[in-house]
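Record pair follows.
FIRST:
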Amino acid sequence: GTGYDSNPLKDFWEYNPLNNSWTQKADVGGSERASAVGFSIGNKGYIGTGIFDEYLKDFWEYNPLNNIWTQKADVGGPGRYGAVGFSIGIKGYIGTGNSGSALKDFWEYNEINNSWTQKADFAGSGRFMAIGFSIGNKGYIGPGSPSHNRKDFWEYDPNSHNLTQQGNNFNGVSQLVKTDTIGKIPATVLPTTTTYQGNTFNGNNQLVQTDAIGKISTTVLPANVTQQGNKFNGNYQLVQTDATGKIPSDNLPASPTFIANTAFLGIGVNDPKAPVHLTNSIINRKIILWQTNDNEHQFHGFGVNGNTLRYQVDVPQASHVFYAGITPTFSRELFRIKGDGNAILAGNLVTNGSSSSSDKRYKRDFSSIANPLNKVLQMNGFQYYWKQEEFKEKNFPATRQLGFIAQEVEMLFPELVETDEKGYKSVDYARLTPVLVEAIKELKKENDRIINENIGIREQSAFISKENASIRKDVESLKTLILQVQNGK
């Protein structure tokens, strides 16, 4: 969204890759703007800064669930346009730009407390209209104006808050070094202490040229390098293998990585019993696939806690998702456990029994369901078929279905309807049970009233019939008396 088309814009559009279509959403908050910057954190989008008559610094959050923009804390520093932005984990970053002159300040956004914190300035020269993006847990900034001839490229580490330039002199730690046209590191970017081209190896982070068959010649190794079967005694050591090409176990430290004769890999285990066998340790972080922050909880991976196998995601917006490969280019989602505990199953659930939490001690603020019978009478049951072709990822069955329309149920019982992050709705059919129970009770009460009325009517009718019989008897007696009088008797 936003941009410039003869005038600054504020319209905002959503792209659906499933059907290759665009849908217009709510306009970006604030004024129209050009040269704004945006990024996403979790399932929220963010846009800020830009230019429209003045340099802007306002910052807006977009919620795709309700299609609403909410203004957040202004970006730190002066208003600007042409800034760079990216996100790493649960933090966002905005920096550089133009505020009458090229800027180089750099700011971190914390969505939890809605605050901006200034970080170390961008280490290159001030610039605007640069490019920013993130890969893994690192951010990258490059090219830009003024002069349109910037070619330098920088990496940002959120842990150390350092920006490191690609192509600068190699200095030993987390540096990017540009190679020459044939893929080699030019000697001009190496420090004077670097060993290369066959010189003697003299310390950490050194380059040593191999011989014609790709091996390091022993003539360039220092005396303290472990080799020829000696004990393994530290980092960067060479240990000679035995006649079968394996490292003898007596040369290994106490907790080595071990490959057995079976080709099983043991990590901290010298007799692995499976293709991958980890040491017996009870920790949250047994296997890390992705780490947002260096702690026991903000990572994607696996752990073991006592009798618990731990499946871990890093933030509440993340999900555990199971897929099945359908084609070389498409996988179908089968089951999703969201970070809030809700679960979505793309298929039928067959079970021998299930139960829901319902203990009175969990609950408070009880009230009766209002007008259950009247509301149930307004519900409409349907027979229908799913749109399988339009929603292939949902794995809908082809058979005819019975059910309700969620939007209709929501008008009567909003508690029974959930709306996902894309706006699609679902009905909790099981929780309709108490509504039906109360409706049946109300119907029985009405039925009992009608039965009692009918009994009263029948009793009244019997009484009237008895009275009529008595009256008829009296009439007959009266008729007899009249006839006697008429006959002079």
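SECOND:
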Amino acid sequence: RRAMSGFRRIGHDEHDALLRSAVGVKEHEDPLHAVRPGQPTATKRKIIEVPYTETVQVPVHSKVHTKHVEERLVTGTELVPVQKYKDVKETVVEYKEEKVKGVKEVWVKKEVPYERIVRKPVHVVKTKRVPYTDYEQKEVQMKVKVPCDKLEVRTGYREDKVLKTRLMEVEQDLHLHHGPVVVREGTPRMREIGGGRTHGVTAKGKEVFTDGMRLRTGPDRMMQRSYSYGGGYEYERPSSSGSVRSVASGSVKQFDVRLNKPPGEAYGMKFDASDGESIVITKVKPGHFVSSHNERNPEAQLKRGDRIVEVNGVRGNAKQLMDACTRTSGPVKMTVQGRRSRGHQRPASAVGPRRPSSRSSSRLLEDRTLQAALA
């Protein structure tokens, strides 16, 4: 019977170690209160919340600025100085000597012929070469280096350590003597039950990029270490408090949301995919598709803090959920878990099975105690 119920025997040392590592213990009602006269044994049961660390793959989209320089041939016009000459005619005055015969008086009263040189001005036209500088156009080609930087996106994954807890049910037989007097405790038995919690990332792994770089296209905006899909989702780093604590007000409900996404239109939501199994909405941008859907459908709103666990039948992997959201247009069915106030009622068709509250136990410690226990 015990094997069918899923229990396995554990030693007392293992039981004590389980209690020392636990972050919360909830004991059931004292079994001695319901002991009947002559009953030889009673079973003591308790729920132990045990922390453990799980390695999950988180998709990473990194924006990379790549510097690139190209050589291009530019054609231009250059003015080259050229030495030239031109002929210029000018008139100058030169003196020409010529012999003129005349007579002169001598002592002898007699005319005697003689010669003398007379300088007469004569206009002469000469041509000379005058140098001057002229410019001629010459086609030249030069190689110039032009910056052609590129904005590229690398896609990969990162293995993070996620802190989770699992609930273990432990039962132990109490051997009685003469009524509710315990004479001996039997061997403890343990089994795992559902209802554990995800508390957040304890260690971020090294980023591993599995594909080459690609150019970013479209009007989407990205953040550092993030990538904006065509569907409007953006991956961002989880906040220090929002990744560990959820909104405390209201109870957790699971429901379905049906959207009819037009092709090429962005959802207008940011999310956190750090747990690797689901995506948590961290922001709903006003004026976008989801914001308009919330105004038209107040009974099926998508709010900050809601956890999307299934998209069109896909669940269990954050990357697959993101791909199903961003690559799908038309009818989209999302299964969402979110906290809603008690006065907020949804139609019966929209409300799914209620998620068991992990904070129902009054003796479960706060998350800060859990972190200290693992330190």
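COMMENT: Confidence is low (pLDDT under 50) at residues 214-249, 344-375.
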